[in-house]
Amino acid sequence: MKSLQGYRSQIEKIDASLLGLLQKRMEVSRAIGKLKKQEGAMIQDRKREQEIMKDVISYANMRGLTVDFVQSLWRRILQESRRVQRND
User: Does the model's pTM come out above 0.70?
Assistant: First the structure.
């Protein structure tokens, strides 16, 4: 049986991994933003965001995660991705 500190240590490692993945996602979003600007494309692509949300909901269901939680999290991630694309 693990101790509370052992579980907390595990959570800290997971959190660090999540933050690293978010950083990578924003780097890719930044590159996408540059391409969109070069091509004269709009920053927000509602169709693409709907596809992403559909996939995220499917993954959430498969993994037993609360759909409302995951949708809320991804809305915020997409919002930040648009901000990064606009500002860089």
Answer: yes
